[in-house]
Task: structure prediction
Amino acid sequence: MQDITESILFGFKEILNYHTMKLVLLIGVVVTLIWSFLGYFLWDGLVGISSSVIDLVPFSMIRSNSAWMLASLVWLILVITTFSLVLIFFGNMILEKVSKEKYSSFSLSIAFGSAFFWGIIGFFNAGALHAKLSQLLNWLPFETVESSMAYLLAFYFIYSAIIVTMLLATSFFSESLLTQVNRKHFPYDDLLEEDELETSENRLKDISIYTIISLLSFPLLFIPLLNFILQVALWIWLIKDTFVEDSAALLIKQEKREKLKEYKKGFFIISGVTALFNFLPLFNLFGPFFGEISMFYYMKLLAKKV
Result:
């Protein structure tokens, strides 16, 4: 467990590095702009598909799921508001006393602290909040609820596309990224030559499986709790399979990779922490870089054991 914790802390430290943050924002802005542009032209189609599926779902299920989505939206607004207020009142004062790197760490800590704080409050008041929002939705016409749900689903499609594209983009640039990390922290350790063909095939296989399962399980998005579990599980699986392959290609010889199955617990924990980034817009851009770097560090520790 010490190796896992050390790898997670290493990942957090590295994403706060100025050069890493610059790369994250550069790729993140490009990916977000591309999907925003595509979303603008595909929006009506996405809303239409969502509406067609919603027509097949009982109103009670739509109402319940809409209430949970609204609750998530309230949580997100509270997190962003808390984060903004803390930076407004204390940001300048702290910036005068600490370095820019430590200020970045402070900002990230405030964001996750806010998310955790409101998450705990929401957890213990989930029933009451869901009941109030369901009551509110009962007062609205069915067409209004259906339309709102369709718009939320369309946004969900685009947001998910940004998350997956960021993950694939990070994986695509992983050799360059991890070589820089290795040169900085482990200058005397050589890396293996990555088999680009094999790695590319793995990425294509992973994204194909993820897409097929997501499409087949689409109706399950309307079942509260199950939709959350399914989405998080898919994220964790995609992160684990992609980033483990990226790091193993640079650190573990092919004949020794079978032994990595003994350490899958660590892979799942790091992937689970990485998946948590996806719940916070903007910070979701940092998730893949955190996961890639943390997995690389963990793999370096494992390379001495396999």
